Amino acid sequence: MILSPLLLLGALGCGNVSNDIFDDDVDFAAALPEESRQTLSFSDDTTDEAGRGLGERADLVELSVAVAGGVNAYVFAVLGVVDAAIELPPSERTEDTRRWGPHTGECGVDFTLLMSRSAGVYDWSVSGHAAGTEDAVLLYGTHFAGTSVAAGDGRFVWDHSRWNEWCAGTETGLVEVAYDNRDGVDLVVGVNGWTTTSGDVEDWTYAYRRTGSLGDFQYRTVTDLEGDGSEELANVAVRDRWIPGEGGRSDATVTGGAFGEDPWVWSQCWGPTGRLLWQEDSLAITEQVGVAAACAFTDVAGVDRI
Known about the structure:
Elements: H1 5-11, H2 19-23, H3 25-30, H4 35-38, H5 59-85, E1 92-94, E2 97-104, E3 110-118, E4 121-129, E5 136-144, E6 153-159, H6 160-167, E7 172-180, E8 185-195, E9 201-210, E10 215-223, E11 234-243, E12 247-255, E13 264-270, E14 276-281
């Protein structure tokens, strides 16, 4: 008697070899971070090069675009490792687990991605080692499936200190992302204990939400607001709200630096391409521009999530 390949594998004790277990690869992959669900897209239209010729782009739009780009850089580092790990099919499968790797990735690091599933909850981790180092966890997370696997919520943590130990970098710290994709994109990104090349240790938090009809981005940062290289840095809390395709409003509360402890509130409204439509501030420092009626949002809104 000649056994078919599938029957032969079953007879040899190779476990579940039905098509279902291979089809489930898609669900496991959907529980991992993915660009469209875990990155910030700050008012897409504001980055439209063609629109910049319509007028001056709002200063707070410029600041928020730069900040969003910096946050995404952390997340893209995570996505790069995950994407590289699952580029090839899983190396091991059971009904409720997957293993990818080991694969050799950037900096010559050997990565392995492990996943387990129980009642719609997916736990995963990426471990690895560089030449001459012990195996260690670089990245881990938990995902709770929603109406579909991808439309769920969860969190993941990236150990940037470990990454730079392997890749001869200098910056250290942890990046933690909590996300909810059950209704649009909702992210809270924390950067904790970040040691910069200058030796400073800093913490940052960013909150972002986008549904089909509304965007909301909040953050706190320390910056040279005057742009003159001054060592007197200001504490800036910014909230951006926008309606895709229509425009938005940015409200900034500034303390410290040249502004002391009395808060300075600076508001700007902008059109679909980020062009400044209206500007006002509480200390009459900036030039009054436009009329408030041009704003997509007429009320001042402060940072309230972080």
